[in-house]
Automatic annotation (TrEMBL):
InterPro entries: LEA1/2/D7/KIN2
Residues spanning the signal sequence: none
Residue ranges, compositional bias (Basic and acidic residues): 49-66
Composition-biased stretches (Polar residues): 1-11, 27-45
Organism of origin: Papaver nudicaule
Region Disordered: start-end pairs: 1-66
Protein name: Stress-induced protein KIN2-like
Amino acid sequence: MDNSQSMSYNAGQAKGQAEVKKDQVVDQASNAMQSAKESCQQAGQQMMDKAHGAADAIKDATGMKK
C-alpha cells in the first residue's frame, strides 16, 4: 500500500469512527430527552391527582360531595 492509499484508508477510518461517535451522542441525547419528557408527564399527572384529591377534600368538608 502506498502512502496515498494509506492516507485515504486512515481518512476513511477516521470518518467512520466520527460517524459512530456522532450516532452515539445523538442516541444519548434522544434518550435523555425521552426521559425528561416522561418525568414531566409523571410530575404533571401527580399534580393533577393531588389537585383532584384536594378538590374532593373540599367537597367533603363543605358537604358538596354527593
